[in-house]
């Protein structure tokens, strides 16, 4: 279904002053000139090309490895305090350039400017956190049980890290990987998604301004991700790979990484269940569900994918959430009052329409939305489907868009069983006013993280990651630093005493 509602005629209108800020940033980066071997970057709200970046081949990627490896040897010899000071300087510069970064995120990715500012805050928090963690590298000293030796453990940099990031959080996904790598003493080669490379390029330029050695972080933009991975992950100088993206690609990368026995962190697909119990505070549940579902237009690995609502509160919840979605202003992320921006590309729009049509054909009730717009941009209306069948595609696949799919349940055990009936295990959400139930259900959910009575559980100080097919390893928190460290053990003999 397509709508050309006159009230939506300003969908693609952005504030010219805000566009000018982003365009000036692009100009300063020298990314506005087209060449033969370049990748075009477009504004998803208009379809307009806004910049071009180099399209590097495998040789270019290996050259980046050369530069990072050379710079990394000196970086590994710096003290924790030196690394911390540089990271603090980078954090301060990121914060000072919030406006430019936020406008750039919105222009290349599409999210509303308010959300882009929140991403700058979240992304820069990782840099500050790992500036603080850099001076706490870990280690231990203890006596062997038989008393014949002292056991000393130390941490050392794992080595050159290859970082592969997605398009949906172009700053936060970069800093969440780069910051712990630098804090541990590792150089990095980062490959951002070709849909949103500009923010990563700009943030790394700011890192150099802060004192990060010129070659320590190498940004590789390429349209041939497979050739990039095949080349760099088989290079003996590479010792670590961190990837955020689909489970399918993650499996492929792990197979390649196994040849070199690389340390691997994989934050992969999600199929998050959000459970609302009868005793939940209705307003808080609706607020949390809206945030968990519609943040970033639903284009998040921890977005609420399957919403299970207990019968006693279901009618009131559906009505309130429908009203909230229907009132959400759709438009260009740089437009005034925009709550929901465009999807990333036309394929995403087609997928949302297909999921909606399939669900309705299998008995779901369309409460609001379910429409595309007459626009050059990639917009889909915020949508609520009620009483979704478990056989509908929207109940089984990762939606990655602004569709709230409601299923109703009767008992707690039923909700938990249905929530866990998936190969994925990244995030889950529980809304209840019972503390006992909150912890009981959270403990039973087979996920790496749980949001209790809130829809945005991510925090730089917390370990983010999944179980089952949602990946391995953690990012954020003290655990995130350990992903870039080797543990070494010294056995110190004690002189016998008589």
Give keywords.
Aldehyde Dehydrogenase, Chain A, domain 1, seven-stranded mixed beta sheet, alpha/beta, six-stranded mixed beta sheet, Aldehyde Dehydrogenase, Chain A, domain 2, 498 residues, 2 domains, 15 helices, 22 strands, globular
What does this structure look like?
This protein is of the alpha/beta class. The chain folds into 2 domains: 16-268, Aldehyde Dehydrogenase, Chain A, domain 1; 272-463, Aldehyde Dehydrogenase, Chain A, domain 2 (3-Layer(aba) Sandwich), CATH 3.40.309. It is built from 15 helices and 22 strands. The strands form 6 sheets. The protein has a 7-stranded mixed sheet with strand order 13-15-16-12-11-18-19, with helices on both faces. Strands 8-7-6-9-10-21 form a 6-stranded mixed sheet, sandwiched between helices. The chain has a 3-stranded antiparallel sheet with strand order 4-5-22, with no helix packed on it. The radius of gyration is 24 Å and the shape is globular.
